[in-house]
Design goal:
Strand content of chain B: under 5%
Radius of gyration of chain B: 20 Å
Oligomer: heterodimer
Number of domains of chain A: 2
Number of strands of chain B: 0
Number of strands of chain A: 14
Bound molecules: adenosine-5'-triphosphate, magnesium ion
Structural class of chain A: alpha/beta
Largest interface: A-B, 29 and 25 residues
Strand content of chain A: 25-35%
Radius of gyration of chain A: 24 Å
Distance between the termini of chain B: 27 Å
Structural class of chain B: mainly alpha
Largest sheet of chain A: 6 strands, mixed
Strand order of the largest sheet of chain A: 6-7-8-3-9-10
Shape of chain A: elongated
Number of helices of chain A: 11
Number of domains of chain B: 1
Order of helices and strands of chain B: HHHHHHHHHHH
CATH architecture of the largest domain in chain A: 3-Layer(aba) Sandwich
Order of helices and strands of chain A: EEEHEEHEHHHEHEHEEHEHEEHEH
Helix content of chain B: over 70%
Number of helices of chain B: 11
CATH superfamily of the largest domain in chain A: P-loop containing nucleotide triphosphate hydrolases
CATH class of the largest domain in chain A: Alpha Beta
Largest sheet of chain B: none
């Protein structure tokens, strides 16, 4: 690596007390990971995995019950590292009686920013997140997606070196998601470190260089996303052919591979093949029999399958 | 800088609060009403108007301080606006102090407004300009600051409803303090005696902030009394803020 660690998390634990009897539940069971300078790091996991809890600990909103974490090599809550950090909370809620620009001014003041420099920063951030013309609108009149955007703007007000985003894409339409992806990439180009959480594998896949996968408070995997989910994240390819329904046995012989599976559905034969190269094999055979290939669909791996794969299915009982 | 920013934002938040306006309008109407009341009653008109005006400053001030005070912190936690605040270079103590100062400023403005109206009504009624009302209202303001600190303290560990009950009790018992002491001295049962005296010594004696006799009966206040009042305020304020901070600095916001 050779790069400086920006976030270091070691054996982090958190216990919440839930229900009427305040039963202790270990929502983080000792997780560890490291985010290095200028990385885009994805924090992936299904609902309830503990992503938000970890992020809240990093931002001193809740306290850990074990382990430790450092940001910029300093203990959590250190004002110097807070000055260099930006944070977007999950489902952002802000003072609804403030207008967009009043709110950003308030945030800037908390970082000691003021005057002309701050006003310029506010203007450029509002246009960066696509809220130009909304500066005098009260936040109570903002839509969910607009709140997400102002949330991103406030996270960037201090031009932070580290940006922590909890579900940055949630509440946004497809164009909005794309814009945020672009924005995250441009942050990396400016030398920033981005740590973001998501439960949507494709968002992480498109952006993150490395990921940490969390499941039920435990780290299931960490590394480059392609190493974790296989080549391009594809499980198998599904080749759909018409006009060969009466000839399935012949097709099987022609292809001559035992590891392919054949399924008949409404006169369409579906052949599942493990590798991209195998697709041609099927197409050739179908053509030889006078049939037509009507579709080739890559079946993507989803998060659950990775967990099942990694955990050997044992966790699923609970 | 951070404290000032949070304080000014809190001031703006409370000033934009509709409840505050309703209370204030009601208070001013009540004070105005005393003008007509004095016309109807027999006796010392001026004293009635002064008494009534100061009572309004006191009671409405307490209601505003307590009912906005208990929501200051709990609303930030409940609406999760505190997330984006505490993640910035703002310590939890700065947050508490900023919230306190913001509401203090709001209550200062409302107290001043009600006092000015009272002085005005007295002037209209009797033709006398009774500027002594202002220092008396100032002493009430010190008490209100303690009530804000107490409301923040209670709301740092319990629900808004319970905080309101505790703060209101503190307000009422705080003014019954002399009676409590009297009762404690006279009580036959050792338990009652102990309970009354413990409450007397533990809770602030808010009658220390009552300087009404200055305007009503021309009682002179010496420096010692004023010093006692400020010392008393400083002591209780420090205790309440420290306790709030100790509780608040360990709390999970969720
Ligand atoms: N304040 C709380 N009190 C009790 N339990 C909590 C609290 N907050 C979270 N939990 C529990 O902690 C676990 C992890 O929650 P967390 O919000 O960290 O998940 P997440 O990975 O962010 O999920 P999502 O994708 O839904 O945002 C869940 O089981 C949740 O029920
Ligand atoms: Mg979450």
């Amino acid at each position: 690596m050779g790069k400086a660690p920006v976030i270091e998390v070691r054996d982090l634990k958190k216990i919440y007390r839930q229900g009427f009897f305040l039963k202790p539940v270990e929502v983080l069971k000792g997780i560890s990971f490291t985010v290095y300078e200028n990385e885009i790091y994805g924090f992936l996991g299904p609902n309830g995995a503990g992503k938000t809890t970890t992020i809240k600990i990093l931002n001193t909103i809740v306290f850990p019950d074990g382990g430790e974490a450092k940001i910029f090599g300093r203990p959590l809550g250190d004002p110097e590292s807070k000055k260099k950090t930006g944070f977007l909370p999950e489902h952002p809620y802000f003072y609804e009686y403030l207008t967009a620009s009043e709110f950003l001014r308030f945030c800037g003041n908390l970082f000691g920013m003021k005057g002309e420099a701050l006003e310029e920063r506010i203007g450029s951030l509002l246009s960066l997140v696509g809220l130009e013309g909304k500066e005098d609108l009260q936040l109570r009149k903002f839509s969910k997606g607009m709140l997400q955007r102002i949330g991103i703007a406030q996270a960037l007000i201090n031009d932070p070196s580290l940006v922590i985003l909890d579900e940055p894409m949630s509440g946004l339409d497809p164009i909005g998601r794309m814009e945020i992806r672009e924005l995250i990439r441009s942050l990396k180009e400016k030398g920033k470190t981005v740590f973001f959480s998501s439960h949507i594998i494709s968002d992480v896949e498109l952006l993150a260089e490395r990921v940490c996968i969390l499941h039920m408070g435990e780290k299931v995997a960490e590394g480059k996303i392609h190493d974790l989910i296989g080549s391009r994240g594809v499980k198998y390819y599904e080749v759909d052919a018409k006009g060969v329904a009466g000839n399935v046995e012949r097709l099987r012989e022609l292809i001559g591979r035992r590891d392919f599976s054949f399924i008949m559905r409404n006169g369409i034969v579906q052949v599942r093949v493990p590798e991209e190269e195998d697709v041609d094999l099927v197409i050739d055979a179908v053509r030889e029999l006078g049939g037509r290939v009507v579709g080739v669909i890559p079946a993507r791996v989803n998060l659950e399958e990775i967990f099942v794969q990694r955990l050997g299915g044992e966790e699923n009982a609970g | 800088m951070q404290v000032k920013t949070i304080a000014l934002n809190t001031f703006r938040e409370t000033i934009r609060d509709r409840i505050l306006y309703s209370l204030l309008v009601f208070a001013v109407l009540m004070i105005g009403l005393s003008y007509f009341l004095s016309e109807l009653s027999v006796g010392d008109f001026e004293r009635i108007v002064i008494n009534f005006g100061l009572a309004c400053v006191h009671v409405f001030g307490a209601i505003i301080s307590i009912f906005i005070g208990i929501t200051l912190v709990s609303k930030e936690v409940e609406k999760r606006t505190i997330y984006s605040l505490i993640s910035k270079p703002v310590s939890r103590f700065q947050f508490l102090l900023g919230k306190f100062l913001g509401l203090s400023l709001t209550v200062f403005v409302t107290t001043l407004l009600m006092s000015v109206v009272s002085v005005l009504i007295v002037y209209l009624q009797s033709g006398n300009f009774r500027a002594e009302l202002f220092p008396v209202a100032g002493a009430i303001y010190l008490e209100l600051l303690l009530l804000i600190a107490a409301s923040i303290f209670f709301s740092s560990f319990t629900t808004p409803t319970l905080s309101a009950i505790f703060s209101l009790s503190l307000f009422l018992i705080g003014h019954l303090s002399p009676q409590l002491r009297f009762f404690g001295m006279k009580a036959k049962s050792a338990f009652l005696k102990g309970a009354a005296l413990a409450t007397y010594y533990l809770l602030p004696n808010l009658e220390n902030f009552n300087l009404k006799n200055v305007v009503l009966y021309g009682v002179k206040v010496d420096g010692g009394r004023v010093l006692l009042m400020f010392g008393y305020f400083a002591l209780y304020f420090a205790i309440l803020m420290t306790l709030s901070w100790v509780i608040f600095s360990r709390r999970d916001f969720k």
